[in-house]
Write a structure and sequence with these properties.
rod-shaped; mainly alpha
Length: 54
């Protein structure tokens, strides 16, 4: 089996590589969204504390 045959996936390359791409996208989003949300919550909390101190 050559690399070209492997990448071609027996004629199903589009479906296989699209599935891999979507799965990778979901995994990345599962990591990125909570980190972004946590940063926003920390920022909002800090702003609220500063306003309360004044």
């Amino acid at each position: 089996m050559s690399l070209t045959e492997f990448l071609h996936m027996g004629g199903y390359a589009f479906y296989v590589w699209t599935s891999y791409g979507l799965a990778l996208l979901v995994l990345v989003m599962n990591l990125w969204i909570p980190v972004r949300r946590r940063r926003k919550l920390i920022t909002d909390f800090s702003r609220r504390r500063r306003r309360e101190r004044q």
